[in-house]
Amino acid sequence: MAGIAAQANQDRVALGIGLMLCAYFLFSGVDASVKWLSGLGFAALQLAFMRYAGHVVLSVLMIARDGVSLSRFGADEPGWVILRALMILLSTVLNFFAIRYLPLTLTATIMFLVPIIVCALSGPILGERVGPWRWAAVIAGFVGVAIAMRPFSADFHWAVFLSLATAVAFALYTLLTRKLAGRVSAESQQLYTGVVGTLALAPFALPQWQSPTTTLDWTLLIGLGVLAWVGHEIMTRAHGFAPASVLTPFLYSLLVFMGFWSYAVFDHAPDGATLIGASIVISAGLVIWFRERQTAA
User: Fold this and answer.
1) Buried b (16+ CB within 10 A) or exposed e, 141-161
2) Closest by CA position to 106, among listed 97, 94, 98, 114
3) How far apart are CA 177 and CA 185, in angstroms?
4) Where does 150-271 have alpha helices with state H?
């Protein structure tokens, strides 16, 4: 019986990992779609609006289907929940601007800074202790991103600063998510995220609206919200099958998926500097993950 239970647990963990990989593949599809549509002249704010509007529509449809009372989505700390929503909104908008100019593999590499920034800020913001091993990993992570950015090369593009700001905003969003964990339901946070993003972007996106002219472009535009929403749902379910300590390292599969889209759609393979920088950042992130597991044990 013990062997059957162990096998069942392994199967659940494997399912959680599979779902996590699916989620990251969908997120990479969002960025690839944004890069494609940006190349056709669609404004970043319109694309960001569609990402959040689709999120709201699907969330409301699920609420209506399940017959859930809207009173369930109240929050005792609306200020923190709204600030969290604004941080991911800022991260999305900056990322969509950066994707217009940068290779997908470079934006992914810079986004790998998120857990490193979270580690650096968890002390002053959450009061968590960060030891010398993790501080060394933080420094190494920034060195890796500097290598990938090539600041003194002729290939350097100013949009990397947008991508860096994207990572900082998403790190703050992550810290606020930690702060609200157990105090505000995940459903409430998701609904606030969609509503705040949609309302904030509508006044800027609608006046410069550009309608797609092909079925493919319409599909990609509508799909922004669908892919993002489904990705978040799958990610949530993945954590029901496997602990976060197991799933966290699979964040780095995003580089493989971004590399696939970058080469298959845009004929752009990652160069040596990006691969070296990404390797350093990923290694630093894994050191932080390993030390956090040790601390939690």
Assistant:
1) bbebbbbbbbeeeeeebebbe
2) 98
3) 10
4) 160-180, 186-205, 215-238, 244-247, 253-266
- Full residue range of the structural domain in which residue 212 is found: 2-296
Residues 6+ apart with CB under 8 A from 76: 183, 184
Contact 174, 248 (CB under 8 A): no
Report the C-alpha gap between 56 and 49 in whole angstroms: 11
Buried b (16+ CB within 10 A) or exposed e, 179-205: bbeeebeeebbbbbbbbbbbebbeeeb
Instruction: Report how many domains make up the chain.
Output: 1
Burial label, 240 (beta-carbon count in 10 A; 0-12, 13-18, 19+): exposed
Distances (CA, A) of 199 to 24, 35, 85, 120, 195: 26, 24, 11, 32, 6
Among candidate residues 251, 237, 240, 239, the one with its CA nearest the CA of residue 281: 251
Cite the beta strand spans of 30-89 per DSSP E: none
* Of 84, 73, 30, nearest in space to 224 by CA: 30
Render pLDDT for 122-166 as a digit per residue (tens, 0 to 9).
777 766 677 777 788 888 888 888 888 887 777 788 999 999 999
pLDDT tens readout for residues 66-99: 666 555 555 666 788 889 889 999 999 999 999 9
Residues of the chain with pLDDT under 70: 1-11, 66-77, 126-128, 181-182, 295-297
Measured in degrees and rounded to the nearest 5, phi and psi for residue 239 equal -70, -10
Tokens representing 2 are 């013990």
Q: How far apart are CA 70 and CA 208, in angstroms?
A: 33
